[in-house]
Amino acid sequence: MTNSNFEQMSKSELKAYLKAHPDDQTAFYILMDKIKAEPNRIRYTFDDPAGDEEFRKAVERKRSLDQ
Hints:
Layout (H helix, E strand, L loop, with lengths): L2 H6 L2 H10 L4 H12 L12 H18 L1
């Protein structure tokens, strides 16, 4: 695939593509760029007890959305 094809893919499509083609660095970097461009990204640190709880909640929300 070409970069323009990857640019047109959604994050879900890119993730599925990368599961089938784990060595495709171009697709990986385009996916990372899409994730970094999201406006409401939350950053967690591993030494913050409050961050641990927030991280657990975020994982639970993500799992419920994926079902």
